[in-house]
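in:
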């Protein structure tokens, strides 16, 4: 079905997770969930992320072909490049409209992240680590955006955003191992291409270990000194550490996809831990 292909194009699961990240950021900052701001924040994240992914697939078509990304609907022919481009262009202003309805500051933040996303699709991705850092920033952005919505950025949001950035950077460097062949087409200077796949795996593993270690800093805050935080965060850390050990022992390219799924699940558990900690 065409609708299912579009959901794959938009990576709707990622968009919804980003939307929930905004809600978590709002709740951590304000200890409540103002309905209108929460709805507009959620829709901003979903629409802008969907737009970004559609445009990414449009610009990365040749790369995805080379990497045999059969999870991409453009590669399988379910959606044309023109359709991907038009859908990305259509969703972009929708997300910005909802951010503007929140506040001028929310609009500026959303616009800046989105413009960097377009720059990433056009050129930034070719700069390897810089491109990885941008993607990692987008994983931290929902929590910061939630704090911006209620005009309150506290220590817990800063820590959660930092953990999301570190984990996200690890995931992106790990992904560069899987994408070596396609990245060579774009002449991308990724860690895996410049220094080798084994080195990229080690750096990724170290970042996962760092994120797991830093998660215990939350225990400095009274609201997180609770079993509600400890159980999900220990589950998150276990997945990150097991993934790190797998990378350190040696990993094949075809195993990266499953590790990406696992580490995304770990990040979702980490987000849940912070949410439960403040309830």
């Amino acid at each position: 079905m065409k609708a299912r292909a579009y959901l794959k194009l938009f990576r709707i699961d990622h968009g919804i997770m980003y939307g929930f990240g905004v809600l978590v950021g709002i709740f951590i900052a304000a200890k409540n969930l103002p309905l209108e701001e929460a709805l507009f924040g959620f829709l901003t994240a979903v629409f802008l992320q969907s737009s970004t992914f559609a445009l990414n697939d449009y610009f990365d078509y040749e790369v995805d072909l080379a990497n045999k990304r059969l999870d991409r609907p453009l590669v399988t022919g379910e959606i044309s490049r023109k359709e991907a481009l038009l859908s990305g262009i259509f969703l972009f202003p929708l997300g910005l409209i909802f951010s503007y309805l929140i506040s001028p500051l929310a609009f500026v933040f959303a616009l800046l992240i989105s413009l960097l996303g377009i720059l990433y699709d056009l050129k930034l991705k070719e700069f390897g680590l810089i491109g990885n850092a941008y993607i990692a920033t987008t994983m931290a952005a929902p929590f910061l955006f939630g704090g911006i919505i209620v005009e309150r950025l506290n220590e817990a949001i800063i820590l959660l955003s930092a953990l999301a950035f570190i984990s996200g950077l690890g995931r992106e460097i790990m992904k560069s191992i899987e994408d070596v062949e396609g990245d060579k087409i774009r002449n991308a200077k990724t860690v895996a291409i410049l220094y080798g796949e084994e080195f990229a795996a080690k750096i990724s593993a170290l970042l996962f270990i760092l994120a797991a270690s830093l998660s215990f800093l939350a225990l400095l805050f009274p609201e997180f000194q609770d079993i509600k935080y400890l159980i999900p965060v220990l589950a998150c850390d276990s997945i990150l550490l097991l993934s790190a050990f797998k990378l350190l022992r040696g990993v094949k390219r075809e195993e990266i996809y499953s590790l990406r799924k696992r580490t995304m699940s770990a990040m979702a558990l980490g987000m849940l831990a912070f949410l439960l900690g403040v309830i």
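note: The chain is about 80% helix and 0% strand.
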